[in-house]
Amino acid sequence: MNFNNQTIWITGASSGIGKALVMALDNQNCQLIISSRRLEDLEAVKNSCLNPQNIACLPFDLADYQEMAFVVETAQSFFGNIDILINNGGISQRSLIIETDIAVDKKLMEIDYLGTVALSKALLPYFIKQQSGQFVTVTSLMGKFSSPYRSGYCGAKHALHGFFDTLRLEHEKDGISVTLICPGFVNTAVAKNAQTGDGSQQNIQDSATENGLDVNDFAERMLKAVHKKKFEAYFGKKEVLGIYLKRYFPKFLHWYTLRSIVR
């Protein structure tokens, strides 16, 4: 695995998977652009690295998807080029459909889908011009099959697969690759920060997330898939079996999921 002299832009970089990716890439002799909403959180991550001189902080909000042209222009100004965009920023959800205000569904689509798509579309002309580039989008196993309490989240993640599969087809001729990363349970604060039906945070860690993959181990495995430019990569424990059950035994997956609902 070698990202020598490459410029990698990571969204959602202030915590969880994004922060673990920054730490894993810190000794790779590459330049990093790290983004999330709050500059002070990004600077804390940068200052904890061994090579902070190779890291630029670019705060912005994925919900402001109309502003992505300016965000990309700013990102380009740091190191002169961008080789890889890792779309990792986003939010999750834990609430039944009947209890979920439509404003929550809208927020999930605006951040997880439209924000990611708008950022990628704004960067696309630069990748076409340089005839190279890689879009890496962290979706979820929930982008391949579904689970109760995650309707809006599943919808947004499924939509990302549809968009980026099309982008891969349209721009392979331009030297652009697309990698979709589908994690199962990873031990981060994603469940604590998840939206509930009224838009408030859940503020509770579930046992499945707590017992999920170690985030640093996941980051290392993810970067190997990125380096190999895989189309899709699935990471997790037994939940990864859902990919294959959905394809070959969908009724069994339905039955099994109902018996083992993880909120």
UniProtKB/TrEMBL annotation:
It comes from Bizionia myxarmorum. Pfam families: adh_short (PF00106). This is SDR family oxidoreductase. Keywords: Oxidoreductase. One of its GO terms (cellular component) is membrane. It comes from the Bacteria. One of its GO terms (molecular function) is oxidoreductase activity. NCBIfam families: PRK06181.1 (NF004825). Coiled coil: none annotated. InterPro entries: NAD(P)-bd_dom_sf, Sc_DH/Rdtase_CS, SDR_fam. Belongs to the short-chain dehydrogenases/reductases (SDR) family.
